[in-house]
Each structure stands twice: as structure tokens, then as C-alpha cells.
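Board notes (copied after class):
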Amino acid sequence: MARLLTRLLAAIVLVQSSLLGAAETSKPNFIYILADDLGYTDVGWHGDEIKTPHLDRLANNGAKLEAFYVQPVCSPTRAALMTGRYPMRHGLQVGVVRPWAAHGLPLDERTLPAALAEAGYETAISGKWHLGHFKPEYQPTKRGFQHQYGHYNGALDYFTHDRDGGHDWHKDDKVNRDEGYSTVLIGDEAVRRIKEREKSKPLFLYVPFNAVHSPLQALEKDLEKYAHIQDKKRRAYCAMMSCLDDQVGRIVKALDDEQIRDKTLIVFSSDNGGPLGLGATNGTLRAGKGSLYEGGVRVCALAHWPGKIKAGTVVNEPLHIVDIYPTLLTLAGASLEQKTPLDGRDAWAAITQGAKSTRTEILHNTTPTTGAIRIGDWKLILNGNAPVDNVETSGAPIRRRQRMGERMELFNIAEDRSEKNNLAESHPDKVKELKARYDVLAAEAVPPKNEPKPAGFQVPKVWGEAGQ
């Protein structure tokens, strides 16, 4: 009798575990693929010089997000994605987290992977972090990722995996010596994580490639595809993007092999506009990386989920990368309750149903010297030509943005996305309206944390190692 009771209890536990596993795996998987410094017209569906068949297939069979906005440079965009909050709330609105920086994404911020882990997700990052590494608590495995692979800094050497002579390749936040081209290694790990995932849990996989950021280093086999391009920078850039697209194809194939593609939402974007002069193109968009004009903040993006997003969808509603946070959490059934208010809005209806976006404005940025806001079709830019990295290298405090003598530019983006016609003088009431709202948001910003390199700073042998 006792033996029979024991078997019965064991069977009940097995059934309960099975039901729990089924409930968890009914949640969608999420893969966010982030390109670094990709130009607006440097994907197949926006241009014809670089061949990106795998990305094109995802875009054509999903939704092209044609008014998708990010921040002007790397770290701020990543902070916005990880928190659903504008980087001016983190002090990360100016420049990027430099290798020597004694700061990162504030530790009191709830992150996207941490929130998804609370909802039962397995979480992994394969690629570039760029949100702080000077102490272990700022590194990915302490910020919600259960698995980490890749590098902490920007501008990584693609072959040696060094930055300024210090090694910057890690697995689970410990030094890693894998050899190979970084774009391929990141793809290898993404595929491995899909195939070796814990199958009783849904997966959140964040794949922030360092391609196509400088240094412009490409594999010879990819350079051969663009031998007809005479400009060496452009040729290398095109080859690097081709390699990234190949890795996207491998990721999709892994989903197909595991028969989970129809259970997976894939989102792709760049982290900022393409840097002109370093091989990138932004088409008719004005300016590029580091700018608050459209060429700096409007990027190519897509969302793909078979059976959930209709093929051929085109979304012209303005969306911002902060919207990804609440969108994914809502799809995952995760809680949006937290101590810090969100700037992001759930964009799922806009992506899948053609609905109007619930957001009424986009704060492109606010810094002590420059800023921009979009409300509806109208965009106001303050001191648009001021440098984004305007920080005193002497260590003196950053000067407050001057209230007098600001240069105002007003554009109707729906009619003039190239930002050729400054309408500030002919629409003073609209300038006043946008400026009033901008000032409210600017007053909420915390001081930027972009500090100069300390005198006598020594590059460590391994970036991020304890005691370095």
C-alpha cells in the first residue's frame, strides 16, 4: 500500500511538472538582434548595394518598422532598450560608457532580462554590452542575464578581441580565449544558446553584434563579394554587413531546426544611424551617427513572428526603442509594476493591427548643449549642430545648456524627413508648444556621467576582471 501511494504521489508530481512546463513554454521566445552603426540604406529593403537576403526575408515576411527611433550613439540606445526609459534618466545621455568609465547603467534600474527572468524566462546575451563593467555588479550576469558571451566595450578588434591592448572577450563574465572573427563567434554562441536552451522555459536572447562598427575589418571571403567597390572603407563595411546577415540566417535556421520559429518574435534594429565617412549611408536622411537629425536617430528595423505578424506589414507610426521593454513584458505576461516609471509604450497593436501608436511624443535626447523632441509630425531641434560628446576634458563640470541664444529648428517630418525646410520662423506657436514640453522633460534629466579619462589610467590586461 505504501509503495502504491508513493508511486501515485510521484505520478502526480510528474503531471504537475509537465503542466508547469507546458505553461512556461506556451510563452513566446524573444530574440532581439542589434546591429552597431548600421546605416539606414545599408540593408536590402532600403538599398541595393549591400546584399542582406536573410534580413530581407524576415522584413518582407513580417513588419518593416519604417519610423523606428533610437538614440544618437551606442550606450544610450542600449540603456533605453534594457530599461524602457530614456537615458537622460540614467545620466547616460551624453556620449558612451568609455572603457575607463567608473559608471554604468545605474544598479537600481530594473532591466529587461531581469524582468523576463522573473516571468520564467531563460535569458542570454551574445555580443556587445557597453553599459558598464568596472565592477562585477555592473556586468551582464548581475543585471538579469543568466548567460553572457562577448565583450564589454565598443570599437573592439574583430580578430584579437582587444580594446586598446586589453583583452575584452568573456563568457559568463569571466575571461574567454575563443579564437575567430567576432561576428561569427557571436553567431556561434547565439545558435548554441538556441539549441542548448532549457526547453521547459521560454528564451530571451539578446544578440548585439559589434558589426558594423569600426575598426573596419572584414573576412576575406566577404571582401571578395564586393571587389567591385573601389572605396576601401565602403568595401569593408559592405563585407562586414554581409557577414552579419549570414549570422542572422544561421540564427533563423537554428529556430527552424528546433521547430520553434512560430513561437519566436524576432526584432532587429541598429543602435544609431550610420557614421558618414566610415562606410555607412543613410540615404536622404540628414546627417548620421551622433546627430539628432533623422540620420542619427531613425534606423532600419523589423519585427518578425510567423502567424502573429502579417507578411508585408509596413508600420509608419513613430516608435522608439524604449517601447520594446513594455511590449515584450506584456507579451510575456510579466509585471510592469516597478519603482521607476516607464517612457516606453506597448507597441504591439501598432505593429500587428495597424493601430495608432499610444505614444504622443518622442524625446530624442536632452543634454546640457543640445536636444530634440518629436510630437506628432513635428520635430523641434535645439542647437542641432552642437557635438553630442560635449564634455570638458579638463575635468571641469559640464556647462549647463544656455537658455539664451539657442538655435531652433522645426521640421514637419511627415512631409520633410530629409529636414531641409526649417519652419521655425513661420510656425512660432508650434515652436513654443514643443519647446514647452521639451523643457518639462529636460528638467527631469539627471546630470550626465560622461567623465574624462583619469590621469595615469592604465589599460588592464583583461577588461572587467576583478582587481584590474
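Comment from the instructor: The radius of gyration is 23 Å. Residues 27-359 form a domain with the Alkaline Phosphatase, subunit A fold (CATH 3.40.720.10).
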